[in-house]
């Protein structure tokens, strides 16, 4: 896979994927502001699916599980400018201006497609990636503060996530797992998102589901794949990434082991 990242600082990068497709299941530790120069991205969350293309700008909150599939388009690579809005930086920003303490965080992906203020802010970073030597942190801080200020002008409601610095508390594990089993996250991260240490997560999981997380996750992903194949008539190549598998051949192997037929055999029998 040909992936090139150029960093101005650890919080600002130019990312480029030359391959036909790149998929990852992610939970960002920072809020991520992304501007598409070329290519397309499909983002699958528990309750919604989003599509972004050239010119689009979106903000994805931290601690949100998502499957992200990047595609080159029209012969051009998947190329983006990505800005990390870290908790540390946001705390400093909001300490200066203050914000209501009674806002309820709205954990959603914010879309700012082709917005001229944000686009000009992010486009102004492009020439800096060709500057030799270390980029001044003070200039990067100004650009990030500019982006945060523009976000607040466009949508004042964005304060509800940018100014929320809480860590995940202990939540209902059964409901969380049934909503998020398709995301290929480490058990440590799943534990963190449910307010548990790894040992507590494993103990609670065994008590509630009466089996290991690994076996339960595989079975649930295969059940979802079976539904997509039989009810929605999707192809295996369209299904395996979205249900949490990384490799098509491995998906076909474990699917046949569970259902007695490979995904392609199953489709042939129902068509």
Describe the structure.
- By secondary structure, the chain is an alpha+beta fold.
- 41% of the residues lie in helices and 21% in strands.
- The strands form two sheets. A six-stranded antiparallel β-sheet has the order 1-2-9-4-7-10.
- The longest helix has 18 residues, at 137-154.
- The radius of gyration is 21 Å and the shape is globular.
- The mean pLDDT is 89.
Can you give me a brief rundown of this structure?
The chain has 271 residues and is of the alpha+beta class. It contains eleven helices and ten strands. The protein has two domains: 3-162, Jelly Rolls, CATH 2.60.120.810; 173-270, Homeodomain-like (Arc Repressor Mutant, subunit A), CATH 1.10.10.60.
**Overall number of strands:** 10
Domain count: the total is 2
CATH topology category name of the largest domain: Jelly Rolls
Helix fraction, binned, reads 40-55%
* Secondary-structure element string: EEEEEEEEEHEHHHHHHHHHH
Taking strands numbered 1, 2, ... along the chain, how are they ordered across the largest sheet?
Answer: 1-2-9-4-7-10
Indicate the CATH class of the largest domain. Answer: Mainly Beta
Which structural class best describes the helix and strand composition? alpha+beta
Mean pLDDT: 89
**Number of helical elements:** 11
Envelope shape = globular
Radius of gyration: 21 Å
Keywords:
about 270 residues, alpha+beta, Jelly Rolls, Arc Repressor Mutant, subunit A, globular
Question: Mind sketching the topology for me?
Answer:
Blueprint: E1 3-9, E2 12-17, E3 22-27, E4 31-38, E5 40-44, E6 49-52, E7 57-60, E8 65-71, E9 78-85, H1 87-97, E10 110-111, H2 116-123, H3 137-154, H4 159-162, H5 173-180, H6 187-193, H7 198-209, H8 213-230, H9 236-239, H10 248-259, H11 263-270
Antiparallel strand pairs: 1-2, 2-9, 3-8, 4-7, 4-9, 5-6, 5-8, 7-10
